[in-house]
Amino acid sequence: MTYADRNDTHTSYLAGSKLQQTKRLNNIITYANDNSIRTYDLEYQYYGTPKKSQLTSIQECTNNGRCLPKRSLDGTMKRHHLC
Q: Which of 16, 29, 51, 80 is the most exposed place for a label (fewest CB within 10 A)?
């Protein structure tokens, strides 16, 4: 997994400790016997007021560079604030 900086940082508190979300998941890499076999690339857009980062698509690629078409996510992600 790799992470990228996000422009919509979020600060909260838990048991008196400050928590900040400054990164978001960029991609996921799966392995078999120490060899990468699949990569899942994630794309985001900013929605709402204030602008919040929302996952909009996922693309699966194999280790030889072949990719399935991007899978767009519908509005349910935006409505339920799952990202």
A: 16
Average of pLDDT values for 11-38?
A: 93
Cα–Cα distance list, 38 to 10, 14, 52, 56, 72 (Å): 30, 36, 28, 20, 18
Residue 27: how many CB atoms within 10 A of its CB? 16
Please report, for residues 16, 17, 34, 74, the alpha-carbon distance to residue 57 in angstroms, rounded to integers and kept in the order given.
35, 33, 27, 9
pLDDT tens for 42-69 read: 999 988 777 888 899 999 999 998 999 9
Whether pTM > 0.90 for this model: the answer is no
